[in-house]
Write a structure and sequence with these properties.
about 230 residues, alpha+beta, Alpha-Beta Plaits, 5 strands, elongated
Length: about 230
Amino acid sequence: MSVLVAVGALALCAILSAALLDSRRKRRDLEKRLAVADRAAHTDPLTGLANRAGLQRALDHQRASTRPSDHIAMILLDLDGLKETNDLYGHDFGDSVLVAVAHRINEKAGHAACAARLGGDEFVVLLSGEAPQDADALAAELCADIASAEVMSEMPIRCSASAGVAVLPAHRMHQLVTAADQAMYRAKSTRAGTSRYQPLTDVADRIPRNRTALVALEGGASKEAQG
């Protein structure tokens, strides 16, 4: 009888061990699938940079890890003439331009808290807390690098970019995208290349109506700040 009990116990242990191993395998598989889904949800599929959701997560992280007295910098880049390039050479070539620009941004802004493509031909670089003083220099370097980038050797097309820089205290982080966009719009309209946000100069009514969707990224944080 004791032998049967021992055999039964061993069999039960074997069954439980197999079930436990299977449960752990399923959990690892689930974690991998969740990680892939999370990466896809926060990454631009064309360029590999963060997308809007990825940028928002980076902003939330910065908001949680900085003091109200700290300053945060953002660079917003808008490519010049991409529509004409698409019309002339096709959207596949236009996509090659976007990928080349993303590569340049990755090379120059590897230390950034986040590099993102907002959609279309607009890119954002969010700088970490220790780097805002370098934002103007980095914006100029990015514009110079983008202008010097040869997209394809068999079709030596080059593009240029306009950059807006905003450096704001952490408690105004919800205004970063709007401020950088206003500065970028001034740089583009004056053909200055780069421009720093100036509160007394960059007013909201200078942004064309078709750019208002860009501000939606900050909408939730703005309402939260007002509350």
